[in-house]
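Sample pair:
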Amino acid sequence: MFFFKKKAKITEEKIQELIQQLERAYMAKDIDQMTEMFHPDNRQISFLNHYSLMMNFQIYNIQSEILNLEIVELSEKEATFTYTRKHLYTCVNKNDENGENPNNISSYYVQIQTEGSQIWITKYSRFSELFLNTEGEILPYEQAVVPAAAQYYENMKRFIKPFTLDGFLPATYYLYSDSEFIGYYPEKERFMFVTSERFTVDYFTEMNADSIAEHTDIYLSENNLEYGAIIEQEENHSIIETKIINNDRLLHELVLSILASDGFYMIRYFKNNNSPIENEVRQSWIEQMRASATKI
C-alpha cells in the first residue's frame, strides 16, 4: 500500500502558524530550524547569517511578540504578506547588563510558496525597524529610526525642520552606499508596507544630472506619468507635481529637489489613497517646500 503526502495549501491560518513557528525558533535559538523554513535557494540572506545569530544568541535571551499581520496576496500555492514583531533582549549573564540593548520593533515583507507538501519562505525582507528603550517603549521622534551608522541625517535636519508633520511619525530609515532615506508615515499606519500617504527625504552624495533643470526634465520625461508639471524651478531647487495611475489607483505626489553644497536632496509628499491631494493641503505642502528650499 502506498501513502502519498497531501500537497500543502496556503491559508491565512497556515501563514499565522508559519510566522509563530519562526518566532519560536528564534526565541529558542534554533538556527537549524529557522534555516530549514527557508527555500534552499533563499538561505543566503542576512537574517540567517550564522555568525551574527550565534553572537546574538550567546549574549541575549529574546522575547518575541507578533503585533500585526497583513495579507497582501493569497492563493493556495503562493502568498505575500507583511508582519510586525517586537523583540525584547535581556543578557544571558545579568552582570553584562549596561543599559544598552538591541530592543526593536521590525516589520517584514514576506513571500512564501508551496512545493509538494512543504511551504517555503522565499523572500524575507525587513522594511522598517523602530528602536526601543530598555522598557520596550519606542524611542522618541527620529531616535526611533535613525541608526548609529547613519552619516547624513544631520545634513537632512535643516530641510525637514520647516515642515509641520502633525499626524506623521518617523517609520523607517535606509542606509545605502552613497545615500540615505527617512520616511514619515501616518501614526496609525506606522507598521504598514503600503500607506495612504507619506513624507520622505532622500539624501544623495551627488545629483545624477548637470543641473536642477536637467534633473527635473529627466524626472518628468522618464517616469510613466499621467500628469507632470513644474510648479517652481530655480538654479538650486525645483518643485514638481506628478500623478500616476498604478493598478487603477491614483498616486499624487509633490517633489522638492534641492542641490546644496553638501549633497542632493529629494523631499516628497505622496498621497496613495486613490484621490488627489486636496487643494488647501496641496498649497500648504508647496509653501512648506518653498520654506525648506531656503535652508540651502
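The radius of gyration is 22 Å.
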